[in-house]
Amino acid sequence: MEDVYCVERVVVASSWSMIGWAETLVRATLVAALFLLVVVYLQNRHRYWTARGVPSSPATFFLGHILRRLGLSQPFTQFFEEAYFKYNGRDVCGYYDFLKPGLVVGNPDILRDILIKDFQHFADRRTFDLVKVSPVANDMLTNARGAHWRMLRGVVSPAFTATKTRRFYALLYTQAQHLLTVARSTATRAPVEARQLCGKYTMDTIASCAFGIECDSLTKEAAIFPTMATRIFQLSPVRALKVIILLMAPRVAEVAHSLGLQFTSSEFEFFREVATHTITRRQETGQRRGDFLDMLMETKIKGETSLSNDTMAAQSILFLLAGYENTANTLAMALHLLSHHPHVQATLRREVALALLQSDGQVDHDRLMTLPYLDAVVSEVLRLYPAAPIIERICTKEYKMGAREVAVDAGMSVLVPVWCLHRDDQYWPHPQHFQPERFLGDARAQIVPYTYLPFGVGPRSCIGKKFAILGVKAGLLLLISGLEVQPCPLSPYPLILDPRVLTLQPKDGVYVNLHPVNLKETVNKEMMQYHASTPEDEIIMEDLKRWYTQKDGTCQQ
Questions:
Q1: What is the pLDDT of residues 156-199, one digit of tens each?
Q2: Which pLDDT value is given to residue 5?
Q3: DSSP codes joined into one string, 414-426
Q4: Which residues fall within 8 angstroms of residue 129, CB to CB, at 6 or more apart?
Q5: For the residues 393-397, what does the mean pLDDT come to?
Q6: Is the predicted pLDDT of residue 66 greater than 70, yes or no?
Q7: With 60 as the cut, is the pLDDT of residue 110 above it?
Q8: H helices present in 359-483, as ranges
Q9: Around Cβ 280, how many Cβ atoms within 10 Å?
């Protein structure tokens, strides 16, 4: 009996063991099936564009293209070049931010529709919900949407009309003269880091025009404004993570902020405190300087719009940061390109010399803005290094795009690869070459519309572009009049860009060698060394010879 009982116990135990294994097997199978379903679901989300016949580069599982697009795993320009040249981005190409589909669009006809004709469908940019994280950052014009954006645009736009920009010219010209003086003294010691030098010049002019603050960056080595402005554009892994959280999980950002995590940088907080302090002080003292901040305060006093101090501070900070980055970078890149193209530099110097001679040594605003070769040089610099290398628009209501009528849903992002458009040999012969003649006379008239977009175009383009271009031209005119720019071995040609920054900043700075020159002697030497590059340049050379002959009775040839 005991043997039978033992056998029964063994059989029962074995049965329970088999049942346990079966249950474990079933559970494991269910988990595996669920996991497989999730994987299939996620992979299918990355087939969104394939199912609609729109090309797209291979997407990373779950992440899509976000790491490449933000420059976290490779320079962001490489991602867009691949999309544009390899996956139909010249027309329409798909991409994914995590699981969310978006489009890269490089077709000029479609761009005209998106940016101008059908703007009501693409009136917004990608924005962050920062109202509970940083009210000031949330109120920036670039972060506003809908009616709030239209109100801010209406308030800010009048400050950047040609008339208002002309009002700042005397200040810009004085700072450009100061820039030349500092550059001359610096040039005698060592190679010059052009972006740092030009950044100090642009910071002094913009800080004065935006805040009415004289920060004197050019003569103070430890000037904090340009240092803070440079840091704010650096995209570290921590900042990138914050951006992703704000994009994908704004509520998580709110909770994290309530626990002490700051989603705005210490550099941004520095400028916020400066702007807020300046506004408060002016409200208390009634002091006026006629700058951008005054214009906003006058609008508030007149009751034309309801502007809070945070809103006014936000626009002043935006003016300072956006203007600093664009102007400093463009001016530094111009010096780098001119150093490697001495014939272009000589042609520009001749135009500058004649303008100074005909203006008694000081070129006024209207003459500066109508110098054709100076404009061509700046335009070509902006082609190679556009202020806005990528333009983004958010679809606000459903839209059928292009001849193929690609369906674009509300909330979908559309990216314009300006960097690629400006370097496409379909529109620009020898696109990597620096050729200002592209922007002279008939050649400029033949540029295909919507293939040259350095500041964007349409209602949401950069409203400060006139001010930025004026600052670049004033600085370049004075520098070329008193300095010869030569290449420096510390900066290769072409420059290597910093992959951590979503603007076109050089990785290791922009070094050039500057040599103080006598303008007349240098022009005479260059007229013998470099032939006229255009019919207009030939006329300028003849005019210069006459001027110099009248001055001293001889012409050095």
A1: 888 888 888 888 898 899 999 999 999 999 887 789 999 999 98
A2: 55
A3: EEE-HHHHTT-TT
A4: 138, 246, 250
A5: 95
A6: yes
A7: yes
A8: 365-369, 372-384, 418-421, 441-445, 465-482
A9: 12
Q: In terms of Cα–Cα distance, which of 265, 300, 264, 303 is closest to 135?
A: 264
Cβ(268)–Cβ(234) below 8 Å:
no
Which pair of tokens denotes residue 538?
A: 């030939």
What's the CA gap between 429 and 447, in Å, rounded?
A: 11
- Residue carrying the six token digits 């005209």: 112
Which candidate, 295, 286, 292, places its Cα nearest to that of 322? 292
Euclidean distance between CA atoms 399 and 338, whole angstroms: 44
For residue 372, cis peptide bond before it (omega within 30 degrees of 0): no
pLDDT higher than 60, residue 16: no
d(CA 342, CA 24): 78
Which residue from 175, 153, 145, 39 is spatially nearest to 99, judged by alpha carbons?
39
Q: Is residue 490 within 8 Å of 511, Cβ to Cβ?
A: yes
pLDDT classification of 557: cutoffs 50, 70, 90? very low
Does the pLDDT value for residue 150 go beyond 80?
yes
For the segment 205-256, what is each residue's pLDDT rounded down to a tens digit? Answer: 888 887 777 777 777 655 677 778 777 766 666 766 776 676 666 666 666 7
In CATH terms, 139-386+432-552 corresponds, of 1.10.630.10, 1.10.760.10, 3.20.20.70, 3.40.1490.10, to 1.10.630.10
Per-domain residue ranges of the chain = 38-130+388-421, 139-386+432-552
- Location of structure tokens 């040599």: 515
Average pLDDT for 84-100? 97
What is the H or E stretch that residue 514 is in? strand 511-516
The answer as to CATH 3.30.43.20 being correct for domain 38-130+388-421 is yes
